[in-house]
Amino acid sequence: QVQLVESGGGLVQAGGSLRLSCTASGRTFSRSAMGWFRQAPGKEREFVATINWSGAFTYYATSVKGRFTVARDNAKNTVYLQMNGLKPEDTAVYYCAASAAQLTTATAARYDYWGQGTQVTVSS
Question: 12-24 pLDDT, tens per residue?
Answer without folding.
Answer: 999 999 999 999 9
